[in-house]
Amino acid sequence: MAKDKKTVFFCQNCGYESxxxxxxxxxxxxWNTFVEETVTTVSAKRRSGGQEAxxxxxxxxxxxxxxxxxSTGYGELDRVLGGGIVRGSLVLVGGDPxxxxxxxxxxxCRNLTAGGEKxxxxxxxxxxxxxxxxxxxxxxxxxxxxxxxxxxxxxxEEMIRRERPKVVxxxxxxxxxxxxxxxxPGSVSQVxxxxxxxMQIAKGMEITVxxxxxxxKEGVVAGxxxxxxxxxxxxxxxxxxxxxxRILRGVKNRFGSTNEIGVFEMRESxxxxxxxxxxxxxxxxxxxxxxxxVACAMEGTRPILVEVQALVCRTNFGIPRRTAVGADINRVNxxxxxxxxxxxxALGDCDAYVNIAGGIRMNExxxxxxxxxxxxxxxxxxSLGEKTIAFGEVGLSGEIRAVTMARQRVAEAKxxxxxxxxxxxxxxxxxxxxxxxxLIGVRMVKDLEKVLAFTG
Length: 456
Prior knowledge:
The chain is of the alpha/beta class. Helix content is 27%, strand content 28%. Strand 1 and strand 2 form a beta hairpin.
């Protein structure tokens, strides 16, 4: 085999490769993102004899079972992963600094070692003493876990092949480097080469590998986007690092749904899962206040209740101010235009502020009806009642459109003690009466004035 070295240019934002420097990346359209790096290519001629030719396997002959997945010890994480850890998978965990990536993976290692699994934790950022201090904080390890602090990719690969653990944690992928590459650690070539090495280890040795990835100021994993294409699963930690809760969301998953989320709470002893996110999100809801209503959104198969708040007041400037936190501001402007056109509510001279309490972000259309009711409640200064919940999509003609999984949303509202549920009439027609909660169906936004008079 012959090795050839050549100079290429990579886009630091998306990983696009070019033979020459360009001011603007043709793939992601970003400016001044190309860097020059030297890569080594291996060329060899295929020989007809020697190694035995590989054979294809029949799909019916491949055996799978429950043993192909391992439980992490956290139901929230297992749900996001699609039912547990798939053996031989490559999982990328990203998030802002200090959000809890390393803490969660260390707690998962504790649960796996308690179950008798052999775990290897490789750190390129912390020393053995620092990892020990963090391990003492999250709890006692019933069985020993292997620790290895190294950034050389050759030594890390040798350690994995010698120890042959079931699970490997790499913290972080940006610190790993190969000495025969001239680029610095964290560059496009180094990150891609390290990810490719761990992918071969995961698939060839049936070892589950967790990669911790740093996040840039744009909110994406540092390094090329090809990193996300190479792994099997991409998980992102969301939430304010100064808040108590964390949301783990699956962006890509080859072995499960990407619509599921896991909710965790940060405590002194580490992260603990929140079994009932709806009750947690509604804690501290004000009583008897106008402009506040509870909505039901779906995250995968899980209904989550959130409080939607709105504040409408007269503006002191020529152009009214519109602000949305946790919701799409363009969607809020659209709904306010529908209220002005279809219901005759004068909002052109009013400032409007919409907030989803708790810092969570929701983009589901089912929150439209709750946003409209919150705006009307604040404008008319009428309380919607403590036990009222609403969900439904609002169209440009003022119609209230049906949403999916209406029965599950009503069941979640009943479980948390709500007495009234405002929902689309189309969804109500296909449902049977539910004992303990009154269902109020609406067809158009003009029907909401009766609802406001009823609940107030």
